Amino acid sequence: MSETNLHVVTGAFGYSGSHIARRLLNAGARVRTLTGHPERPHSLQRRVEAHRLAFDDPAALTESLRGARVLYNTYWVRFDHGDATHQRAVDQLRILIRAAMEAGVERVVHTSITNPSPDSPLPYFRGKAQVEATLMDSGLSYAILRPAVFFGGRDVLINNIAYLLRRLPVFGLPGRGDYGIQPIHVEDMARLAVEQGRSTDNVVLDAVGPETYSYRALVRTVAQAIGKRRFILRMPSWLVLAAAKVVGWFVHDNLLTADEVQGLRANLLVSSTQPTGTTSFASWLTDHADELGVRYANEISRHYR
Ligand SMILES: NC(=O)c1ccc[n+]([C@@H]2O[C@H](COP(=O)([O-])OP(=O)(O)OC[C@H]3O[C@@H](n4cnc5c(N)ncnc54)[C@H](OP(=O)(O)O)[C@@H]3O)[C@@H](O)[C@H]2O)c1
User: Fold this and answer.
1) Residue 166 to residues 81, 146, 176, 291: CA-CA distances in angstroms?
2) pTM of the predicted model, to two decimals?
3) Pairing of strands 213-214, 180-181
4) Residues 280-305, buried b or exposed e (16+ Cβ, 10 A)?
5) CATH class of the domain whose range is 6-151+184-207
6) Is 182 touching ligand 1 by the criterion CB < 6 Å?
7) 281-288 and 215-225 helices cross at what angle (nearest 10)?
8) Which of 25, 38, 116, 202 could tie 129 with a disulfide, CB 3.0–4.6 Å?
9) How far is residue 232's CA from residue 104's CA, in Å, rounded to a whole number?
10) What kind and span of H or E run contains 287?
11) CATH top-level class for 157-181+211-304?
């Protein structure tokens, strides 16, 4: 058993991990992060001890977890890029779970995705299910949180929808746009993670906000909030992806992948259980319309440059 109040967060200088780390610090915990970017300039640098996320050195990884009461894992890759693939992330997270067991970590709070499935044709959803299964079989106490999509803070998806709506006269929806999306505020996600860090029950919880939108309604709501009248049109998925590729050349990013479109259209970003987040997307949008989408949020720059 650990005697310290040490909590380890992967990616505390990243997006949701920084919200989790800040909450832990405010609650008086000692926080260490495991990250691919220990030197990244960040407001938490002086309050959080940073270690390399050493998947290539399991002994060092185990040492970096020793004494920790809880491990909060946010590590994952959004899309395959070079050798950073979903399959590699699954293998790496198996190494991390093994290291947590060897280090005597008491509990793991793991971030997954809504509706993961070992049979999914989509590597993101399949890989998430494989990692969940490894954690459940590990004997470690666990909480698995399954968010659909985050908003607030340094979010990518909602921000970039607004970015496109600010600049282009037409916004293409893959297909009818009638599939659902149930966003959760990143602070609600962080609250759930910290609450679950204190518990001892093995749980799997969808992390979703109080409002479910169709994708079409979500895009319309964002357009209205930022004051842009736009043509929001149904299009074949291939056309939306081709347009996203062209925009991607200008912004030097991978805007949208075919797998993400498939996941959306398969209605995988909604929950059939009670909302666990409380922040209203619509109210948040009203309060943040002026800044939303003013700058592009670049996934490739965040992780590869
Ligand atoms: N963002 C969403 O809307 C959303 C929706 C559903 C589920 N999730 C899940 O929530 C978790 C956290 O998401 P987030 O958006 O908050 O993530 P994030 O902060 O961008 O990244 C979380 C962690 O993953 C690492 N990472 C991400 N992409 C990587 C790459 N290409 N190569 C190497 N390392 C990479 C980061 O490394 P560094 O520490 O080096 O930065 C960080 O440790 C993930 O498991 C994600 O699948 C997110």
Assistant:
1) 28, 30, 22, 11
2) 0.97
3) antiparallel
4) ebeebbeebeeebbeebbbbbebeee
5) alpha beta
6) no
7) 30
8) 116
9) 52
10) helix 281-288
11) alpha beta
- Measure the CA dihedral 124/130/133/137, to 10°: -140
For residue 93, what is the enclosing H or E element?
Answer: helix 86-103
Q: What is the mean pLDDT of the chain?
A: 97
What is the number of other CB atoms lying within 10 angstroms of the CB of residue 26? 9
Which atom of ligand 1 has the smallest separation from the CA of 78? Answer: 28
- Domain ranges in the chain are 6-151+184-207, 157-181+211-304
Tokens of 157: 């998806």
Amino acid (1-letter code) at residue 200: T
Residue from 53, 55, 71, 76 to probe ligand 1 pocket by mutation (most atoms less than 8 Å from CB): 76
With a 6 Å cutoff on the Cβ, whether 17 touches ligand 1 is yes
Does residue 2 have a pLDDT over 80?
no
- Dump pLDDT digits (tens) for 253-278: 999 999 999 999 999 999 999 999 99
Does ligand 1 come within 6 angstroms of the Cβ of 174? no
Q: Which residue's alpha carbon is nearest to atom 4 within ligand 1?
A: 149
**Chain segment 108-134, per-residue pLDDT in tens:** 999 999 999 999 999 999 999 999 999
Beta strand spans in 40-166 (E): 49-52, 68-73, 107-111, 141-147, 150-151
